Amino acid sequence: MAEQPPSYGVGIGRLPSYGVGIGSRPSYGVGIGWRPEIAGFVEGLPGLRFAEVVAESVHAHGELPTGLQVLLDRGVTIIPHGVRLSLGGAEPVDPARVEHFAAVAERLRAPLISEHIAFVRAGGIEAGHLLPLPRSREAVDAVVANVRRVQAAVPVPIALEPIAALFDWPDDELTEGQFLTEILDRSGAQLLLDVANVYANARNRGTDPAELLDQLPLERIAYVHVAGGAEHQGLYHDTHTDAVPQPVLDLVGALCARHVPPALMLERDGDYPPAAALAADLDAIAKASGYPVIT
Amino acid sequence: MNDTWGISGPTFLTYFIGATIAIAIIAAVHRKALFRGDRSARVDNLGPQQVAYLNGGDRLAIYSSMGGLRAAGALGTGPGRILVRTGPLPSGVTPLDSAVYNAAGNGVRTRDLPNDQWVASAVEQLRDNLERTGLAVSAGKMREARLWVLAGLALVAIGIARVVAGIGNDKPVTFIVIATIAAFVVTLTLLRTRRWATDAAHKGLRDLRYKHNYLAPSNSPSYATYGATGAAMGVALYGGAALYSMDPAFAAEAEVQRIAATGGAAGSSGGSDGGSSSSCSSGSSCSGGSSCGGGGGCGG
């Protein structure tokens, strides 16, 4: 059982003018990505205070999945996480998608929403996948313009998540750190940092993952994704279907040594293991971050 | 006095329809009393196989056991669609699990399981327990409830006799034909109703289904995460379809039927279900009833 820190409050969601973090100062500790396949496991976590749900999987009106409703009734904060807005697209974000996102956020009484810094469609063609942007000033302009459109329609803050990429575009003008900082500074958005991505990117480029941490505005982190991955033919793949490896947990520790984020969550998207293995991942994240165990 | 049997068409029709409705209502009230069960009985501490029995009888209890054994890696299928053991029997299993596991060692098929001596006695033990605690409807009460089928059949027989007599008497019979068909449908409904859970258990099962909604096949639940008990409970609450969602290849190979787990008016589709075949014998009283129509040939 996790003890309740005095600052914790679920009512934050109704105060959209609040600033940084999920809500203001409250720390949510360790959470998990809610998926229908493991809804029963998530429901059974006694210390859970926040979870994330894929925004596109929730009906804006209609009935909520039972498992989500149970969590909401328990006072668990649920963050809608978009995967299809295509903030990095050259064209403006689709108003219908933004409207859906806003409705879902309201439905869940979410204090925050999140999306990726990526594009999923261009020229009317759907990639069906999150694609990386070239780190150019032009791309920064496009992302910032789209984030502002979302901010105009959704009353709660947005956190942006950089994605993993196995390659760099040849004409990058900015470093990863500069690119992200620029987008966050100009849009006023918060950061959703995926530690496994940071690890994967650094590992596949032969750089030090902790170096990137020093270049990012860590105080802007709303929450952190932690996921598993696996190595194939010398490359580390951020699969989200494997256990969280020790180097990623070490990086969580390195992050928390610099700045303790208000919340960290396990992101598991498939090939779900026995409950004990999921619980072990959650406990490992709690241990690495110093937050109370939630299992 | 041209009226068939000396009763005018409209009068006969009124009494006939009245009798049909009366039988339907009295049978329903009788059932309500018979199936009430023990209101203080609880289902939340039942095991998956007991829940399965309440939802779908012997067959679902066996499927639930198969689901648990499959998730534990103890059960699989071999050539000729027979069940085989694929691992050791997990510890802490129920007598039904042991019986199914034992039968799997003898190369039986899923549909033969209810006839296996061990399995049958394990199911019987399970059933007795549930009947004693007022959660399951006993075979005796089910038979009692079905007595109204006889009344229905008698009515149908009278209707047929009246139609025959009416035709002989050169009277229009359209309405009485329709009324007889209606009486037949009511009788069939009384006959086909098969339920295992008492009303007291029904409410608890509904709550249980809500509580375990995450096991519904529509969530494509991860049975690896929920383990053997989760798999068994999924089958118990959501029927054979849950086995298909958890392990489609195994479910198909084992010829598991997608029986619904409603516990409601699910028609028992023959097979090894002794209950429905015995009620079939009450259908033979139909021939007795038709002889009554022969006696009523006075209208001709």
UniProtKB/TrEMBL annotation, chain B:
Per the record's keyword annotation, is Transmembrane included, yes or no?
yes
Disordered: where is this region? Answer: 266-300
Q: Where is the composition biased (Low complexity)?
A: 275-289
Has UniProt tagged this entry with the keyword Ribonucleoprotein?
A: no
Q: Where are the transmembrane segments?
A: 12-29, 147-167, 173-191
Q: Which InterPro entries match?
A: Ser/Gly_Cys_C_dom (IPR026467)
For bias kind Gly residues, which ranges apply? 290-300
Q: Which domain of life is it from?
A: Bacteria
Keywords from the UniProt entry: Membrane, Transmembrane, Transmembrane helix
Q: What is this protein called?
A: TIGR04222 domain-containing membrane protein
Organism of this sequence: Paractinoplanes aksuensis
The taxonomy runs: Bacteria, Bacillati, Actinomycetota, Actinomycetes, Micromonosporales
